Amino acid sequence: MSMLKRNARWAGTLAAAISAAIVLSYAAATRADNEQGDESKIQQGYAISPVPLNLEGKNRALVGLGSYIVNSTGCNDCHTHPSYLAGHNPFLGQPELINAPQYLSGGRTFPPSPFVSADITPDATGKPAGLTFEQFKEAMRTGHNPLDPPGVLLQIMPWPVFGKKTDGDLRAVYEYLSTIPSLPDNPHPGP
After folding, report:
1. Residue 122, beta-bridge partner list
2. Dihedrals phi, psi of 177, to nearest 5 degrees
3. DSSP 3-state assignment of 154?
């Protein structure tokens, strides 16, 4: 074999080895970033949950991630009425304090429509909004709450957006919602 062919073969092998090392290094770095990102989101989720959580029998990582999703994407804005305690509305330049006594118990009206946000706290059996996970996932993906009559779609609720979340994200949201205090429907509905 000529020296030129041997050098070309060696150079090709070296280039392939370098490419493989770069791909493996990038994959490891991406995996580490994702794992750190999830850990960071889990920690932040616990830091921003405005209510005590019942973690008995729950996956703590899913609960933290679910809290992060719920409390950083505006669920409180519609499902808690009023969203903030008196004197603690950040939109009025006040120090923020979420209305924990009515947290996610629904009751926000959307005049002039007849729609009222649902109570999504756990029912007596521990199911958020009375839904199993499969029913919850169906509502988030299709806009139809299986407890409603056929053909009725959720209005106001941004289910087309939440429906794009992964099954893992929706499982995390459901897990978090199953740990928050169970409350009766908000007794003070309003806009």
Report:
1. 128
2. -60, -25
3. coil
What is the per-residue pLDDT for 8? 46
State yes or no: pLDDT of 5 exceeds 80.
Answer: no
Spatial separation of the C-alpha atoms in residues 58 and 54, rounded to whole Å = 8
Query: What is 73-90 written as a DSSP string?
Result: TTHHHHHBSSSB-TT--G
Rounded Cα distance, 56 and 133, in Å: 18
DSSP conformation letters of 177-190: HTTSPP-PSPSS-B
Residue 10: CA atoms inside 13 Å, Cβ hemisphere, count? 7
Bond before 112 cis per omega within 30 degrees: yes
How far apart, in Å, are the Cα atoms of 67 and each of 45, 50, 62, 137, 154? Answer: 5, 9, 8, 17, 23
Measure the CA–CA gap between 166 and 163, rounded to whole angstroms.
8
**Residue 183's closest CA among 101, 69, 88, 89?**
101
pTM to 2 decimal places = 0.81
Is 80 exceeded by the pLDDT of residue 102? yes
Q: Is the pLDDT of residue 12 over 80?
A: no
Of 139, 166, 142, 136, the residue nearest 69 (C-alpha): 166
